[in-house]
Amino acid sequence: MFKKILIANRGEIACRVIKTARRMGIATVAVYSDADRNALHVAMADEAVHVGPPPANQSYIVIDRIMDAIRQTGAEAVHPGYGFLSENPKFAEALEVEGVAFIGPPKGAIEAMGDKITSKKIAAEAGVSTVPGHMGLIADADEALRISEEIGFPVMLKASAGGGGKGMRIAWSADEVREGFQASKNEAASSFGDDRMFIEKFVTQPRHIEIQVLCDRHGNGVYLGERECSIQRRNQKVVEEAPSPFLDAATRKAMGEQSLSLAQAVGYSSAGTVEFIVDGDRNFYFLEMNTRLQVEHPVTELITGVDLVEHMIRVAAGEELSIRQEDVQLNGWAIESRLYAEDPYRGFLPSIGRLTRYRPPAETEEYRPGVVPSESVIRNDTGVFEGGEISMFYDPMIAKLCTWAPERLAAIDAMSDALDRFEVEGIGHNLPFLSAVMAHPKFRAGEMTTAFIAEEYPDGFEGVDLPDETMERIAAAAAAMHRVAEIRRTRVSGRMDNHERVVGDDWAVTMASRRFDTRIRADRGGATVEVGGREMRVESLWTPGDSLALVHVDGREIALKVDKQTQGFRIRHGGADLRLHIRTPRQAELAGRMIEKVPPDTSKLLLCPMPGLVVRVDVAKGDVVEEGQALAVVEAMKMENILRAERRGTVSKVNAGAGDSLAVDDVILEFE
Length: 672
Description:
By secondary structure, this protein is α+β, with helices and mostly antiparallel strands. It is 28% helix and 32% strand. The model has no long low-confidence stretch (mean pLDDT 91).
């Protein structure tokens, strides 16, 4: 077995590999850029080597720099994680020449499956179902349009070397093919150094389901069930689960056997994932094979008890698999929510900055990867810490929160509660959206497709409307909490010795344009709160200043994220962001007569929706633009974002140009 391995990656995946290596008694080496000098993976590793400036193409994906780090530290093997160099055959070849083990598949398998055109041809020859499409390389937008019209709209434009949603676009018309083809080529060149493109038919109402395979160098292989990855935005996964609520045993077996056939056809060893698109009749079609560890691998580990990282290391060391197909059992249900530094209220655009608060829910102490749990589990794979920076140079993922339970709905409910307990401040993030998904009837029923976000949030995510019962419970909890805060305030001020004469029992709680009149009867154990004629028992150990309140209302615990504001609280729960005003009945009556502040008019401005770099501005002063017309392109976190006109208008001023670095809400264009 290896004594020392280097992790050629960063963030949460580097931390996750380090955990398994440490448990196996293997020393670890981290690599880091200038931006990651103080990163968590650097602190966790036994050694760390600096590899260059922040941009990945000057540090993490420069093979020579990684090879230098290997030589400096004497690492015997390299785990590439995912992304970066994980599917780069030149890197695998460089390691082979150096005599260093690659904790991944053979170079030939990476080459065959890494090129999506070649992989589809091999898959078809191996008897794997494939999607109709054009497998040849495409020279330019004109050829892309001709091919698209032959296949029939809609089509998917895909980078041959792509992954993680980069270089992928759906085109529903000729104009979208022309526009999307060049944008996808640019993203592919920037992310992978390879701008080759291909086109395939886009299957409507699809589900994205993938099979995890694990093979050794002795001809043994198993498939470890499937993962459902249909909740996506911009072709990138947001919520995953295992197993899929849609597959039956026969389809699972057929998909698994085809996946192993493909793996055997390319002489595969290590962990890999075969991705399929599945229609409503459970017909499945090969999409691609990822020759690496997947982001969502924890849900498979939770339902099988197989530590995929450990097996990857053992396979790379030449060991045989210790499990056979008959040993694989799917136990319970696991959900993964990807916590991203992106604002769901702004179309999931990236957000950067300092994590002024980062407090995930407590992980289940007795759980460790490789062991099938018996009770509910919380697992959080992360690479950040409170006070750390979310950089514009890398993927916006903050953490992968996972829950496991014996049944699917129990796992979803556990996830909802864990999300309510997850505190993140300082940046925009998608916690509210993740909570909304957990509560959505279609998701809870398992009736989702990859179009879930587009169909259920056609105008974008605008928050959550909580059920009346939940609102009443929050009102009762907030009134009791406010009373506690008022008692402390009067004691600190020294206004009266007998606080009962100062703090009243009747309070009006206003939130989401609704008023809840409450009456409190307090005692030593808590309080009985009347809301709308209904009495609820409220008990909590919350004290003023605590950012998380765990409150029992009628015996049921709810988690509330709490921030103090004038005359009340800001409370976040279940995906809702509520501003509560808690006043005496007389104060509430007077407040209702106040004039509301009108927000400024920005309808004649094109504002930068996220921090980023201007790639180009497509219009000039005096130009007349039409609704939907592309105005500018801004790049952030390796993704190009096209900003379009909301209505017809005339450009009166251009405030930014190519190469400018902009902050959120910086003005790019002004209109007459």
